[in-house]
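Example S7 (structure tokens).
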């Protein structure tokens, strides 16, 4: 590998960019970075790794020891007016998005990419973990935080694993990130129209998946045929891919799913033999994710016992139905910034927590705080909100985190508008634009056995931590899970 002496990362404090920075540093690159601000755990991880960084955009600091050989841009550094980016363009310094950098320096001859509207973070992380445990030393990157392995790693082997994000690579590059990962193998989880801000029609969205499916060598696709969107795309293939799901006739069929507050257990039928799986991951839908990874790992030649043991030990990704607090009341953090993902997470929580709460005889109530991403605020997404929150007892819409908006397009939904839309099918929906007042109202209403779930992609401006703080103040015997 041809290593430049110095790479500077503009927007280094993101989950993906910081992990890439640390992976490069461990492989002998000189890495520096900048961002608007730094907070634990990212700042701590960068410091512990020995990566130098500073706050703000300062070309003179970036080039204090000479101009960098390459610049990677991501996260908060993507503005066209970023002074460091302008300096790089003026000086002719190679200037890449993180997807481009991964494609140039992380992708191996055997490149496994996990794609789909949902499930791609969990499946790519779990597959990277299994392959690492099997001694395959893959290079990889996934867009989440896990206690089991870093979010990115760079090794000299012949395998790589990537979360194939379909969103644009950068503000100057509308191509999906997965366009740069050159898959030799594809794990195909799902397709349901998303990111309406970038893909204004369903056909636009499906087209990018058709293209990546068409680029993969024959018989190297593992696909979930339970999914209508996946079947719609696969029908155009001239060969039969490896399939998984619950339907008769699939190659890897899962059944007998049992779930609890401690995880899931189920069976995978493969080659006429049952394989019992136990996982600490919450949510029956993770049986589908796990089965897809099991199928890919086994087809790669990894022993099924190694796969099952790794699954049993894999604790998952933070913000994927993550238990942030367990006591008289449970607090859940879920990455669910669209109506469809919110509905799926709420259905799972209703299934897990449905039943009388301890000692009271009343059923648990679910209090949902929902902040959509920009796609979920697109007016074309309004029909998807019908009955999306039927499994919540109370829904709260906070004021929305400020995001960049394309002035040439119709203004996105604001909180009060979205409240009215959700209230058409869930009458217990309120808009409270003051975070402190919202938390106070939730704490006032919850009772023993209830669940508070934060559904979104942003960090909720410290609201989760403040909720936990108030709960521990009123219930000192409760336990906090970090």
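Recovered sequence:
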């Amino acid at each position: 590998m041809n290593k430049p002496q110095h790479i500077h990362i503009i927007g280094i404090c993101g989950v993906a960019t910081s992990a890439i920075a640390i992976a490069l540093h461990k492989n002998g690159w000189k890495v520096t970075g900048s961002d608007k601000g730094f907070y634990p755990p990212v700042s701590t991880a960068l410091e512990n790794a020995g990566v130098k960084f500073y706050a703000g955009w300062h070309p003179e600091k970036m080039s204090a020891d000479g101009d960098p050989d390459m610049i990677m841009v991501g996260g908060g550094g993507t503005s066209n007016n970023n002074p460091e980016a302008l300096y790089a363009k003026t000086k002719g310094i190679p200037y890449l998005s993180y997807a481009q950098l991964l494609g140039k320096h992380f992708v191996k001859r055997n490149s496994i990419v996990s794609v789909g509207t949902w499930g791609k973070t969990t499946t790519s992380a779990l597959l990277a973990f299994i392959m690492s445990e099997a001694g395959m030393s893959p290079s990889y990157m996934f867009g989440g935080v896990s206690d089991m392995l870093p979010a990115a790693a760079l090794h000299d082997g012949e395998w790589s694993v990537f979360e194939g994000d379909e969103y644009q690579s950068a503000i100057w590059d509308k191509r999906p990130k997965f366009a740069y990962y050159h898959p030799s193998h594809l794990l195909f989880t799902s397709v349901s129209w998303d990111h309406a801000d970038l893909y204004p029609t369903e056909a636009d969205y499906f087209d990018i998946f058709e293209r990546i499916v068409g680029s993969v060598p024959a018989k190297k696709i593992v696909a979930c045929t339970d999914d209508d969107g996946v079947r719609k795309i696969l029908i155009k293939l001239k060969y039969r891919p490896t399939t998984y799901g619950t339907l008769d006739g699939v190659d890897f069929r899962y059944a007998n799913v049992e779930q609890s507050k401690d995880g899931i257990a189920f069976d995978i039928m493969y080659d006429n033999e049952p394989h019992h799986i136990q996982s600490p991951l919450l949510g029956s839908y993770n049986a589908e994710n796990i089965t897809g990874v099991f199928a890919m790992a086994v087809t790669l030649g990894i022993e099924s016992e190694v796969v099952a043991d790794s699954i049993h030990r894999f604790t998952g990704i933070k913000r994927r139905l993550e238990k942030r607090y367990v006591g008289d009341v449970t607090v859940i953090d879920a990455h669910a910034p669209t109506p469809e993902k919110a509905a799926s997470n709420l259905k799972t929580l209703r299934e897990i927590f449905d039943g009388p709460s301890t000692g009271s005889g009343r059923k648990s109530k679910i209090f949902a705080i929902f902040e959509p991403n920009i796609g979920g605020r697109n007016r074309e997404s309004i029909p998807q909100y019908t009955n999306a929150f039927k499994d919540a007892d109370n829904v709260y819409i906070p004021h929305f985190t400020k995001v960049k908006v394309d002035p040439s397009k119709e203004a996105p939904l604001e909180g009060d508008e979205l409240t009215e839309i959700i209230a058409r099918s869930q009458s217990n929906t309120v808009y409270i634009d003051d975070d402190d007042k919202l938390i106070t109202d939730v704490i006032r209403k919850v009772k023993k056995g209830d669940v508070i779930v934060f559904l979104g992609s942003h960090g909720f401006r410290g609201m989760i931590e403040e909720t936990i703080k108030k709960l521990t103040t009123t219930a000192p015997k409760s336990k906090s899970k970090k």
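Notes on this example. Residues 106-313 form a domain with the UDP-N-acetylmuramoyl-L-alanine:D-glutamate ligase fold (CATH 3.40.1190.10).
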